[in-house]
C-alpha cells in the first residue's frame, strides 16, 4: 500500500504537464429544485459540430457538479478576460453566484444565464461516464448565441479570451503568429 504522503513520479509529471497546458474557461449554470447553480470549469472540449456536442469533466466530489448533472440541462457560458470576476466567483466554494448584484436571467426553458457573457449555449446532457474522481459528460447543444463568431476581426484587446494556466487566470489576445527564438528553431 502506498503511503499517502509519498508522491508518485508519474502523478507529479502529469500535474506539472497540465499546470503548463493552457485551458479555455467556461461557466456552467443550471436550474435545480434548490435554485440556480453555477460552476467554473477548464475541462470543456469540442466533440462534434454535427450534431453539436461538447464534453467536460466534472468532479464527483462537488455538490454543485452533482446538482448540475441531476438538472439534465445547462447553459455553457464562454467568458472573456473582462469576465474574470464572474469566473472567479463561480469557482469559489460557497459563494453566492446569483446574488442581487449579479445580472442574470432565466431562459424560457428555466436555465439561468449571465447576461454580461455574450457567447453561450443551452445544452442537454447526452451521456455520462463515471470514472474514479470525475464524471465525463457529453452534452448536445440545443440553442445559443455567439455574437462574434462570424467576424474574426471583432475581438478588441479588451476582449481577450479567458484561459487558465499555471494555476492562474490569463488573457489570450488575437496576436498574429510569432517566430520562434533562434535557439528554438529546428
Automatic annotation (TrEMBL):
Any GO BP annotation: pyrimidine nucleobase catabolic process
Name this polypeptide is given: Flavin reductase domain-containing FMN-binding protein
SUPFAM superfamilies xref list: FMN-binding split barrel (SSF50475)
Molecular-function GO terms, alphabetical: FMN binding; riboflavin reductase (NADPH) activity
Keyword terms, alphabetized: Oxidoreductase
InterPro entries linked to this entry: Flavin_Rdtase-like_dom (IPR002563), NADH-dep_flavin_reductase (IPR050268), Split_barrel_FMN-bd (IPR012349)
Organism (species): Celeribacter baekdonensis B30
Gene3D superfamilies linked to this entry: Electron Transport, Fmn-binding Protein, Chain A (2.30.110.10)
Residue ranges occupied by any Flavin reductase like domain in the UniProt entry: 18-171
Stored SMART domains: Flavin_Reduct
